[in-house]
Amino acid sequence: MLLGFIFPIASSAQEKLYSNEFPLGDVQLLDGPFKHARDLNVEVLLKYDVDRLLAPYRKEAGLPEKAKSYPNWEGLDGHVGGHYLTAMAINYAATGNAECKKRMDYMISELKACQEANNQKYPDWGVGYVGGVPHSAALWSKIKAGEVGAIWEAWAPYYNIHKMYAGLRDAWLYTGDIDAKNIFLQFCDWAITVTEGLSDKQMEDMLANEYGGMNEVLADAFQISGNKKYLTAAKRYSHKMFLDPLSQGIDMLDNKHANTQIPKFIGFERIAELDTDQKYGKAGSFFWETVTTNRSLAFGGNSRREHFPAKESCIDFVNVNDGPESCNSYNMLKLTEDLFRVNPAGKYADYYERTIFNHILSSQHPEHGGYVYFTPARPRHYRVYSAPNEAMWCCVGSGMENHGKYNQFIYTHSEDSLFLNLFIASELDWKEKGLKIKQETNFPYEEQTKLTISEGASKFKLLVRYPAWVNKGALKISVNGKIVDGTLLPSSYVCIDRKWKKGDVVQVTLPMRNTIEHLPNVPEYIAFMHGPILLGAKTGTEDLKGLIADDGRWGQSSSGKFLPIDKAPILINDDIQNIGNKLVPVEGKPLNFTLNVKMVNPVELTLEPFSKIHDARYMMYWLALSNSGYKAYTDSLANIEKEKLALEKRTIDQVAPGEQQPETDHGMLSENSNKGNNLNEFFREAKNDGFFSYNLATNSETDLSLRVRYWGAEWGSRKFDIYIDDEKLLTEDNTGRWNQSMFKDVVYSIPNSMVSGKDHVWVKFQALPGSTAGAVYYIRLIRGTVAKK
After folding, report:
1. Which of 1, 536, 559, 595 has minimal CB crowding within 10 Å?
2. Could you give the CA distance from residue 136 to residue 677 in angstroms, rounded to a whole number?
3. What backbone torsions phi and psi does residue 55 show, to the nearest 5 degrees?
4. pLDDT above 50 (res 9)
């Protein structure tokens, strides 16, 4: 059931925080994929139990239990509740859905009761607090007392509560709810008082822990209230470790956790917008440039294993299953909106379009509406989906919001200018001008869009986006059948300044072409684009383990087997940059193509929009080589095989840790040790001062080395000693050593004094305090030593 729009106060977003955006209710989506996604998302949202989402808040406020908390990701109790409140607000604002309004009102009344209970129960630290962080009383009491190290005793507590800050802000922003505004500002006061006794150094130390967009919401509080104390607090909650170098154009993002950083820069940009502080603005814009230009994939997403890769680590995109994270794109779109508001440049809209058409739209299952966490770029892998009331991941929370905001950036305005940013079927009610404008399009399945003034008359400038993916001079615009002349350049806006009246029609022709994009820093892998649309190909449905995730802690990762990279299709062509011309359209199926290209490991595949591929393995990136490049590739494989044979000849003894028979054969001894499997390779490691050791034959030889295989992307501290018998060979430290998701073989020379006169030696891996020894995947005792440099 839909209701009319009834708001306690004026609903125009420009009177609140975002001066260039139209109220969501004034931009109606028309039939098409985005309306379908939005409507399906509302259905999914209403399957969640609100009392379970609110349970952490009642628990921490000492109120009686109404329902059990969700079990999954319980260390972040409360984070999805904030996202859900935002989702209720935006979907009520956009659609007038009565149930969304009812749930939003209920949540606000419950949160108000929690805040009042905290005021009474915790006067020393909790006045204004409304969070669901587990053991809030113990944590925040310590923080207020200056024990900032306590922040590491909980799972990202500021990240957690930031979601409720945003939810309360959005309930006011999108629906005008006064209670939400008051709760929000009191909560912001709490953020100030709980840290007012901390030094700048203590604040900086604490901000090393993921804190979401705390600086953003405090900047918002300044704009809402006009009270400068919130702007001061926003700067105090800004992590200088990233603000300082990025504001100077220094990229130090390698191997940093991606979604920890992106919200910081949203906050930096908001501060710059409200305070005209150039330092904050430079940091925000430079961050956006380096992430979108150097660190993003063809579909707009970024990060692997949740971290920004270094240049040499970008091959991880091909190797791992935990590719770009949906939350990252959610936050990059927020940053893009903020940057565009200050500087309405075409490049921002180009990125925005690419990301919502490819990543965000594909992150929702089109039938059951489940949300996606990781989108692997690994050839012939797949992604998994959440189910309602299970798997309460961060990307479930941001997914709840994503599909309700498709109408937010289609049109923006500045004074008497209207920007047409996105080609999505919709209707704008520009109340200030007394105009209604209808956009009719089936883009990207047709190469045009049409705007009609359906009501009213007014003089204004219409700025039509000239997308970067349209060739120079190829865009055509007509008004009432008359071609618009002028200089037309890609990634810009074409301005049409005139008096508009009912019945005026603007026709925009958008010629699309096939191009390729190279994987960042791994140019031999390419993706196919048709205009802004990433084309992918279904490759099979075998072993889609965990396709719909359960409540397991790691259910967000696709756990089916990895198919060999070298057995995936390889494209061979001597003009790879123009290989897009080899795509052959499938008759009667728009945006479907076959590949007319020489192929190794050939299979019959059809390319289609990546956002349409679900419940299947797929190809997003393809290894594409010239004929000479393919010969070098096969020569390299032959050399690898030759090296393997040579290594076997040098090997005196070897053991495969984690495999029962080899470990038994080599008399393994161990303490506080465990084994496991990664990519079908067994390993062993030891923790808590533990060890493991094996008895290896030397053949009574000298001039020997120890060759050990490790995984190049381990988490946590990896410091350990290696012993030969009872004598220490060396101390090894693999902590953050490679940051590459591939196996790494390290060779250690053994002094002859350790093996002379012995036909066997014990090789022992001993964990150092607080560290892990290993994981070790393979051990060889080999002839020859490492040459000294």
Report:
1. 1
2. 37
3. -55, -45
4. no
If phi over 0 gives left and psi between -120 and 50 gives alpha, with beta otherwise, what is residue 489? beta
Band of the pLDDT at 14, cuts 50, 70, 90? low
Note the residue count of the chain: 789
Specify the number of domains making up the chain: 3
Same domain, 588 and 670: no
User: 728 and 601, same structural domain?
Assistant: no
Whether residue 325 is contained in a domain is answered as no
Query: Tokens 């998994």 appear where?
Result: 384
DSSP string for residues in 172-234: HHHH--HHHHHHHHHHHHHHHHTTTT--HHHHHHHTTS--TTHHHHHHHHHHHH--HHHHHHH
Q: What percent of the chain stands above pLDDT 70?
A: 98
How many CB atoms neighbour CB 317 within 10 A? 25
φ, ψ for residue 319 (rounded to 5)?
A: -90, -30
Indicate the pTM of the whole model: 0.91
Q: Are residues 617 and 662 in the same domain?
A: no
What letter does residue 68 receive in the DSSP assignment? Answer: P
DSSP letter at 358 equals I
Q: In the predicted model, what is the mean pLDDT of residues 383-404?
A: 96
Within this chain, do residues 613 and 684 fall inside the same structural domain, yes or no?
A: no
**Dihedral angle sign, alpha carbons of residues 297, 740, 310, 397:** positive
| DSSP sequence for 397-448 | HHHHHHTT-TTSSSEEEETTEEEE-----EEEEEGGGTEEEEEE--TTSSSE
288 within a domain of the structure (yes/no):
no
Residue 713 and residue 564 in one domain: no
In this predicted structure, the answer to whether residue 148 has a pLDDT above a threshold of 90 is: yes
How many other CB atoms are there within 10 angstroms of residue 483's CB atom? 10
**Which residues have a Cβ under 8 Å from the Cβ of 69 and sit 6 or more positions away?**
52, 55, 56, 59, 77
Structure tokens at 3: 């209701």
Q: Give the chain's end-to-end CA distance (angstroms, integer).
A: 76
144 occurs within a structural domain: no
392 and 444 within one domain:
yes
Distance CA 26, CA 435 (A): 11
Q: At what angle do helices 278-294 and 326-342 cross, to 10 degrees?
A: 130
Closest Cα partner for 417 from 356, 496, 364?
A: 496
Whether the CA torsion 311, 315, 316, 317 is positive or negative: it is positive
Tell me the residue range of the domain where 688 lies: 648-783
pLDDT digits over 66-91, tens only? 999 998 888 899 999 999 999 999 99
Distance of CA 414 to the CA centre of its chain: 30
Q: Dump the DSSP string for 250-306.
A: ----TT-BHHHHHHHHHHHHHHHHHH--HHHHHHHHHHHHHHHHHSB-TTS-B-BTT
pLDDT in tens, 610-648: 999 999 999 999 999 999 999 998 888 888 878 888 999
Is 287 within the bounds of a domain? no
Coil, helix or strand for 741? Answer: coil
Q: How far apart are alpha carbons 559 and 547 in whole angstroms?
A: 9
Q: How many CA atoms lie within 13 A of 631 on its CB side?
A: 3
Got the DSSP string for 736-785?
TS---SSEEEEEEEE-GGGTTT-SEEEEEEEEPTT--EEEEEEEEEEES-
- One domain for residues 748 and 608: no
Classify residue 363 by its DSSP letter.
T
DSSP sequence for 629-649: HHHHHHHHHHHHHHHHHHHHH
Do β-strands 727-733 and 27-29 pair in parallel, antiparallel, or remain unpaired? unpaired
**3 state SS of 515:** strand
Same domain for 611 and 682? no
- 771 pLDDT band, cuts 50/70/90, is very high
Strands 570-572 and 622-625: parallel
